[in-house]
């Protein structure tokens, strides 16, 4: 995959062929597969074009606890590569050793995600990166202090001088570097991708049936569309919660109440528990939730309703979702400047 790509064309929404429950034709399946084909380039904004040096600097900052107020937590604390850039608990733990109110969203494929956060309050990755760093409950950092700390580290002075020769160490350059690194965090090729590319043996017959269900009877595709399996919109999926989510920013929109950003589905098997508050512990429970239809209330998405999936259909759908997970790879920890 080239990291030097410019903005790729927007991906088409998945084709939804109607909730008929009947088998799809080979032509229909091939058409659907095209809607989920991986892009070959990562989109970088004109304001922050990719360079390996900038991404390397951003990775060091992403792993560096010196950005936090108590020097005891870093971005990886909530976005752990071993768990799909999330954490394997319902909600992450902040700098004061207290659980946060929401689950940490994955950084995977963030280059294709906007707006950011479960409630969409940040438009860009740069804006998003500032939030956890300065939030008193998360990293509790202050940029005035962060800049002073980094400026006293010869290694960082050298890096920033090379990557940002006209600016040096500033709030904006710190956030630009982190966001550039985050855009390079891309899920690997999964069995599903190999099937899309023509390898019929890459996934099981059950997973292929699950793919049909995903786009038809199970009604997943209206929200989980495109190669990253998200429409980047907000939906109330009927989970028990007092958190109004997007409703905080769209008070007059009934459908925004209890609505949260549609998460992508790549590498799901590493990313449990699920939902904005981690209340769904595993993939089986997630499918059961959608099969039952969740809590019926005025804000619940029109796409969420009881599905009446059989045991075999549930198994097929699960096998398809598992096929979206790439083989686990090691993410080496960078050597931090001193």
Automatic annotation (TrEMBL):
Span of domain Cytochrome c: 53-154, 205-325
GO MF annotation, one: electron transfer activity
Cofactor note: Binds 2 heme groups.
Pathway given in the UniProt record: One-carbon metabolism; methylamine degradation
Binding site for heme c 1: 75, 78-79
Pfam families in the cross-refs: CCP_MauG, Cytochrom_C
Alphabetical list of InterPro entries matching this protein: Cyt_c-like_dom, Cyt_c-like_dom_sf, Cytochrome_c_Peroxidase/MauG, Di-haem_cyt_c_peroxidsae, MauG/Cytc_peroxidase
Keywords: Electron transport, Heme, Iron, Metal-binding, Oxidoreductase, Periplasm, Peroxidase, Signal, Transport
Location(s) in or outside the cell: Periplasm
Predominant localisation class: periplasm
Alphabetical list of PROSITE patterns matching this protein: CYTC
Claim: Acetylation is one of the keywords in the record: no
Role description: Involved in methylamine metabolism. Essential for the maturation of the beta subunit of MADH, presumably via a step in the biosynthesis of tryptophan tryptophylquinone (TTQ), the cofactor of MADH.
PANTHER family: BLL6722 PROTEIN (PTHR30600:SF10), CYTOCHROME C PEROXIDASE-RELATED (PTHR30600)
Protein name stated in the entry: Methylamine utilization protein MauG
Originating species: Pseudovibrio denitrificans
């Amino acid at each position: 995959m080239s990291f030097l790509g410019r903005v790729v064309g927007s991906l088409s929404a998945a084709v939804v062929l109607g909730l008929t429950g009947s088998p799809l034709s080979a032509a229909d399946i091939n058409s659907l597969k095209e809607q989920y084909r991986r892009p070959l380039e990562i989109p970088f904004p004109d304001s922050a074009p990719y360079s390996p040096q900038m991404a390397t600097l951003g990775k060091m900052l992403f792993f560096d606890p010196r950005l936090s107020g108590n020097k005891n937590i870093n971005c990886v604390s909530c976005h752990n590569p071993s768990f799909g850039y999330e954490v394997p608990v319902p909600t992450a733990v902040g700098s004061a050793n207290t659980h946060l109110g929401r689950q940490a969203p994955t950084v995977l494929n963030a280059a294709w995600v906007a707006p950011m956060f479960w409630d969409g309050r940040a438009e860009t990755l740069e804006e998003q990166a500032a939030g956890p760093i300065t939030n008193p409950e998360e990293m509790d950092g202050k940029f005035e202090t962060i800049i002073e700390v980094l400026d006293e580290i010869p290694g960082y002075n050298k890096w920033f001088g090379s990557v940002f020769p006209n600016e040096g160490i500033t709030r904006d350059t710190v956030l630009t570097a982190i966001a550039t690194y985050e855009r390079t965090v891309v899920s690997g090729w999964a069995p599903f991708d190999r099937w899309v590319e023509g390898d019929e043996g890459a996934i099981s017959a059950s997973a292929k049936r699950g793919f049909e269900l995903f786009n038809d009877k199970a009604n997943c595709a209206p929200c989980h569309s495109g190669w990253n399996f998200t429409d980047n919109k907000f939906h109330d999926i009927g989970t028990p919660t007092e958190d109004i989510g997007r409703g905080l920013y769209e008070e007059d929109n009934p459908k925004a109440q209890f609505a949260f950003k549609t998460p992508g589905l790549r590498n799901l098997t590493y990313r449990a528990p699920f939902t904005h508050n981690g209340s769904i512990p595993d993939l089986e429970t997630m499918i059961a939730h959608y099969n039952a239809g969740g809590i019926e209330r005025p804000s619940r998405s029109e796409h969420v309703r009881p599905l009446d999936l059989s045991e075999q259909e549930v198994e097929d759908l699960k096998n398809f979702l598992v096929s979206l997970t790439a083989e686990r790879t090691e993410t080496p920890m960078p050597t931090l400047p001193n």
